[in-house]
Amino acid sequence: MRKTILLISICLGILLLFTACAKEAPTPAPEASINPAEVAALDAALPSNAPAIDNPLSPDIQTYYINFLDAIDLSPIIFVGEYMGYEMTDMGVFDCSFKVKEVWRGDFTEEVIHYVSYELGGGTYLEGQDYVLIMQRHESLFYEYPHHTIIGDMFIPVENFSNSLMHGQPLSNHSDEVFEDISSLREWVLNAEPPEEKAKNFTWATDFPTVVKEAELILEVTITGISIEGTHKASNVYLGEVLAFVKGDTYVPFDPETSNEIGITLNKGLEIGETYLVLVNRVDATACFYIQSSPVSVIPLSETETIEEIYALVASN
Question: Do 168 and 255 lie in a common domain?
């Protein structure tokens, strides 16, 4: 039976069925997009004993709800934040801002955390009020700043902790541990083991010695089309014909049943039919597409000086 996860959280480009933020009155939000790579990643992380609920819209699908303690175990970032409000993006996505008041878990330096959301959840955030945020973090070459999502559709107000919700129900319905107040939750989080930090599949470096070293594959690729046009990110998933290997000697086709084209998430603006030298990494061990490995990993063949530098670096390693 095919399994999916409904963890109203993750985004962009991970399952993005998010909880939307409002100021005082809820505002309708558009349907979420689904990122298969994020579905697979969450499926692998989901506890084996997560309760399954039949999906009435599709008999061959089960929906899995994680409980509150599992959500804490899966979240690398937990903090108390003051809700500052939201902005609507051009694509109708809520970009909600929280001023960091107290960090319970996570190594980050932002004073403001951005929570990207598509749909309304069980509670309404009020400006100036404090909330406990139990979050996943999503960094990308194609985001202006890191995006965050909430696992499990949680709504935890600090001043009215008894009104906390998960999956639209009282928090106590989804927790094996009884938390009487914010202090008991804080103590639990501080004593719990955080998840292992996930390795990034890209680097922010812009010097070519580092970029070449960090890239899994370096290829000459002719862009043949766009498989997925980006909506809330500055990238597309392009299809391409591999003309030459500069580093590495094999790749996984995007759809091996129909063609040998490679699928790569790259900056928008590439020309169909043009050939580029691209430095890429596989999204993860099971993915059928790749991702640009750095901010400078797409080079037109006309930039001969840069091309020659990269070929020389590969030859010297």
Answer: no
